[in-house]
Specification:
Order of helices and strands: EEEEEEEEEEEEE
Structural class: mainly beta
Helix content: under 10%
Strand content: 35-45%
Number of strands: 13
Shape: elongated
Length: 178
C-alpha cells in the first residue's frame, strides 16, 4: 500500500495506442483546461440611467468572482490576459418599460462584429422587463476587451433596476479553450 509507479521520465512522451482503454478508479489530475480566467460582476443596488438612443455600458461595478483580476470594476471591461476562446454572458432588467426597442450586446473592443450578438426585445407595457445575451468570443490575451452594453429608444432616459446581489444586471464569462 502507498506504492507509487512512474511511467517515463521528464520530457518523455507516453503514447496510448488506438483502441486502448484507460480506466480510472482513483483521482485524475493534470487533465483538461482550468477555464481560467473567469469573472462574474453585477451592478450596484442603485439604478443606472440609460439615455435614449445611446449604447451604454452597464456599470457592473461589483465583482463576485474575478480570477486573474482581468475584469475592471471601474471601466466595466473584461480584458483577459490568456489568449483563447471565451464564453461570455450578460443580462439587464429595466425599472419599468425599457422602451419600444431595447437591445443587449457584448462588444469586443467597443465594436460590433460578426461574432457579436445583439438581442432585440420589444415591449409596450409598464412592467419591469429585461433581456440576456451570451456568445463565444476569441481574445488575443493582451489588449482585446469586452463590455456589456444596452440600448433603448423610448424617447427619454430609462433606468435599469438596481440589483441586490446580482440577480438583475450582470456580466460574466470564462475561458473555454486556449
Amino acid at each position: 500500500s502507498g506504492t507509487s509507479l512512474e511511467l517515463g521520465s521528464n520530457g518523455d512522451t507516453i503514447t496510448i495506442p488506438s483502441g486502448a482503454t484507460i480506466t480510472n478508479s482513483g483521482t485524475a489530475t493534470g487533465f483538461g483546461e482550468s477555464n481560467t480566467p473567469y469573472f462574474l460582476a453585477y451592478t450596484a443596488s442603485s439604478t443606472q440611467s440609460i439615455s435614449n438612443d445611446t449604447w451604454t455600458t452597464v456599470a457592473t461595478s461589483n465583482a463576485l468572482l474575478n480570477d486573474g483580476s482581468d475584469f475592471n470594476t471601474s471601466t466595466y471591461k473584461f480584458t483577459p490576459q490568456v489568449a483563447g476562446k471565451y464564453f461570455l454572458f450578460a443580462a439587464a432588467s429595466w425599472n419599468g418599460d425599457g422602451g419600444s426597442n431595447s437591445q443587449y450586446t457584448i462588444k469586443k473592443n467597443n465594436t460590433e462584429s460578426v461574432t457579436t450578438q445583439r438581442i432585440l426585445r420589444v415591449y409596450s407595457d409598464s412592467n419591469a422587463r429585461g433581456g440576456n445575451i451570451n456568445a463565444f468570443f476569441e481574445a488575443n490575451g493582451s489588449s482585446d476587451y469586452f463590455t456589456f452594453q444596452v440600448y433603448q429608444s423610448s424617447g427619454g432616459a430609462k433606468n435599469l433596476l438596481g440589483t441586490n446581489g446580482g440577480e438583475n444586471n450582470y456580466f460574466g464569462g470564462f475561458l473555454v479553450a486556449t
